[in-house]
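Quick one: HTH-type transcriptional regulator YwoH from Ornithinibacillus halotolerans, structure tokens please.
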Amino acid sequence: MLNQDLIHLLNQRVRLINKKLNESLQEYGLYNAQWSILYYLNNHGAKTQKEIMNYFHVNAPTITRTVKRMEENGWVIRITGADRRERYIELTDMAKKRYLEIEAIVSTHDEEVLSNINEEEKKLLYHLLNKLD
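--- reply ---
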């Protein structure tokens, strides 16, 4: 029973964190999933949809819809790779310019979410979450 309770609580907390982040990002027309892709591309450079899909452990239609919406809203562009069939997803100039502004909003959100956890507990939580498969 403890396993089910623990996973249920983890899922509930993640939903709450995502809901609050969505509220914080609303003024930018972004959702947490889109922010995650912006964060990933900013830190790792242009990636294929397949690389993004594998990194986030989601299926192709989910990434396709999210990237399409981000492209329509001017956050990302698709560029052709060395192989013409290969397309990379890259941040637009607008996304690069606004990234630090959005990151500050996310940092404030993160601080609020973690405000009841001290530094030692954060390190332990980080360690424990990395052990999950």
